[in-house]
Amino acid sequence: MAQAFNVEGFRQKARARLPKMVFDYLEGGADDERGLARNRAAFAHWTFQPRRLVNVATRDLSIDLLGRSQSLPFLVAPTGLNSVFWPKGDVALARAARRAGIPFILSTAANASIEELADQAGGELWFQLYVVHPGLAEQLVKRALAAGYRTLVLTCDVAVNGKRERDLRSGFGVPFKYSPKVVWDALRHPRWTMSLLSGGLPQMANFANQDADNIELQAALLARKMDASFDWDALQRLRELWPHRLLVKGIVHPLDAQHCLDLGADGVVLSNHGGRQLDDACSPMMALGAVQAQTRVRPLIDSGFRRGSDVVKAMALGASGVLLGRPLLYGLAAAGEEGASAVLDIFRDEIDRTLANLGCASIRELTPEHVARVPG
Ligand SMILES: Cc1cc2nc3c(=O)[nH]c(=O)nc-3n(C[C@H](O)[C@H](O)[C@H](O)COP(=O)(O)O)c2cc1C
User: Fold this and answer.
1) Which domain, by its residues, includes 352?
2) The domain spanning residue 30 has which CATH number?
3) To test ligand 1's pocket by mutation, which of 34, 155, 164, 276 has the most ligand atoms within 8 angstroms of CB?
4) Backbone dihedral angles phi then psi of residue 90, each to the nearest 5 degrees
5) Nearest C-alpha to atom 7 of ligand 1 is from which residue?
6) Rounded Cα–Cα distance for residues 341 and 143 (Å)
């Protein structure tokens, strides 16, 4: 297959290697998938206003993120079930992140446990928390603390599971159901099938060997049967439980962002879960200005970033860093750790070129004046 020069190239490679039901799990959005399209379209609302005759012979892509310096302005977003894309998918992604010097965020729904990942991957590890029920959340938080994680990311945009019709149609779920359609799909993708068989069927590792409710919990997690009663009081209790950095992911409303900070969160991640939850939730790029105006704090952001220029626009408009979801999963599904690293390299290269041609020598020097809102 042709060499991949951009994220779309890796998307094509991932589509070729994965069975349709697995690719659809990776790719799909909620309902009519308008949110997916809107997340991409949002970037076209801004053009660049390049400055000329600036010395851009060297460019600096590093940022300060929550008081720490890192060499690139992005992070690996938390994604569940990474081992359906590549054996030991979480470890592969975390190693690619470590090589690039960026944080990796382990999902509650990961296939590597909190402890296993800390042991095998190293680097800067963050833990993403889904609250399936309060007692379980408390156990996970304590395990993350004991295993050395120092940043906790609470995801708050999954009160119930988004209606992902691709998954409903294909029957994708845990435990896997072996319908004739699934077996046929697997047979037509032998490279994937062989690697899955060699790596073993993915488990929700954070719950393996927990207790008798294990399978039920795993199913609840995959179906995103969350504790829908989790509210501001619960956030306050979580704040008291977790002594280190706490971020809240899934915010799009400026007042919610403010409320998180008022309760002691260290930051928020503007996100609509990559269009997988509430189809017509506004795109985080469209919320960025209002959130910044309200809070005076630079938020993290994700959903729809596929080009280095997208990252540059968000940083110019006041984001503190960008979480990458599907792009890294395309790389992972195409070629494991090497594929994820290649996608990170593509982002690095595209950001570097964008800065040079924009007449800005450093990510830290980007300002809203580097972009202009397209009228209408
Ligand atoms: C396959 C897949 C699984 C995901 N699983 C999780 C998860 O377990 N926890 C979470 O907070 N977000 C999860 N997300 C959302 C991502 O963290 C992120 O918000 C989203 O992918 C960003 O959009 P993008 O894919 O367009 O980059 C998942 C996204 C995908 C595509």
Assistant:
1) 7-373
2) 3.20.20.70
3) 276
4) -65, -45
5) 79
6) 28
